[in-house]
Each structure stands twice: as structure tokens, then as C-alpha cells.
Amino acid sequence: MKLLRSTGLAALALAFSTLATNSVFADTVTMTSAPNRNNYGGGAFIATVNQSGQLGPAGSSFATFCIEENEFFSLGGTYTYTINPAGAVAGGVSGGNPDPISFGTAYLYSQYLDDPNHLTLTGDKQQGIQEAIWYLEGEATTTGTFGGAVLTKAEQDLGLTEADMIAPCALSNCYGVVALNLTASDGNHQDMLGRVPEAGATLLLGMSLAGLAWVAYRKKLLPSGARPLSV
Q: What is the pTM of this model?
């Protein structure tokens, strides 16, 4: 019973510590243009974190791309965000609420962030990644010239088909990539990409372990046939 209780308490501590690192109250990012962006309708953009949390310490920043094509934000604007492993919400050409992130999108974005020179990429290369993402997310019916090259190379590198790339990624194979559901004070909405290693998986695992341990622990304390009181 001691081991069971310890497991439950440790899992609860893990779950709530994870929650505490990313408060749901007034977590915001400020959106600006990435270097070399060629004013193409999509990314790359830079999100600057205003409160320390799962996206990083206050003042840190990361490059990101749009998930949906027909949502908009204002450069220099500050947006409240929600981290959503399930995908984009409340908009987009392809619909869906949530609209899951594709495996190909997760792969492309993760590879982009892992490139130490990603902030120096030309505008054409940035555009190609955005075009490929919109195609993989069902927001566009064609990849465009730059996007086609990005998608073809990714398929060749992975040895996968286009259907494999379009398929929704499971939480276990999303490379830590999540949707950031951004909302402005006027209600303007946009879904952007972010990467939060272990965030969703750690929270879900912690809560699941805590729940199972607590249920088992209470059953141990109850006489046979007894029911727990409602609280």
C-alpha cells in the first residue's frame, strides 16, 4: 500500500507541477515577422513569450508557422494562447474542431526548429514550408512550387507516401509539436505551431497514474461491498 500511495502522490505532484508551469490565465505571446520573410501570406513568424511557462521563459522567442490559411493576426499584436495537443480550433478551410495536426506538419516543423540556421533561411524556403504545411493540413489543394519541393524531399527522407504525411499524428509521434490557439482581445483568432517537449504526454501520464492509484487506494480502504461517499 505504501508503494501504491507513493506512486499516486508522485503522479499527482508531477501532474500539478506540469499544470503550474503553464497557467491558463493571461498567458500571452507577441507576434512579429521572422527575418527574411518575403511578405508571403503565411510564416515564418516569431512568437515572443510574455510569461514564463511551457513555451519558455519570459522574453524568449521561437519561430512558428500558421496552421490555418483563412485566419489572421496583426504583426506586433499580443495574443492570449492555449496549448492544444489535439490541434487547431474554430476555423480554417478544412474545418474540424479540433483539426488534428498532420504527421507531415509535425515532422517539417520539428526539422525546421532543429536546424540551427532556421532563422537565416531565405523567404522562398520559409514560404515553401508554409505552403507544404497548408497542403498537409487540407487548407490548400496544391503545394505551390516551393512547397512541392519541401514536401517531396521530406517524403524521400522518410520513405513515406503523401497519404502517410497527411495522416493525423498521434500524440506519441508528433515530435512534441502542438497547436497554439491564439486569441486577441477583440476575438480575432489564429492557430500557430509550437513545440512543447513532453508537455502533453507528461500531463496525461501523470493524471492517469494519479487517477488509477487513487481509485485502487480507496478500494483498499473500503470494506467489501461498501460504496465511497460522494463528495
A: 0.75
